[in-house]
Amino acid sequence: MMKFICVEKELNIPKSKIPADVMESEALKVYDLYSSGVLREIYFKEENNIAVLILECKDRNEAESVIAALPIVEKGYIGFDIIGLRPYPGFSRLFDNKYKAN
To answer: Quick one: pLDDT at residue 100?
Structure first.
């Protein structure tokens, strides 16, 4: 499994213009994703209402599909930048003989 950080991109449509039924559908979808373990964490940036989601998916295609299925994305109100993450390899230096003190 891979982790992905997904950062909302506003598409110049005020959130106040998004219909209430779409926002309710969005909340239900987000809850389903969270309950299933695909959506691991969800936040808003401190300085604005930009959503930041952390997904755990088998690959980028799955992450893109998950994001594309969000009702407010499907209807074109917002988009997301999807950033794939890989594990930090630096700790291996602690156990690699080349880096150990003699």
So the answer is: 58
Q: Report the CATH number of the 2-80 domain.
A: 3.30.70.1060
CB 84 within 8 A of CB 2: yes
The answer to whether 40 and 56 have CB atoms below 8 angstroms apart is yes
Domain boundaries, the chain: 2-80
Residues 74, 68 contacting (CB under 8 angstroms): yes
Its pTM stands at 0.85
Distance between CA atoms of residues 62 and 51, nearest Å: 19
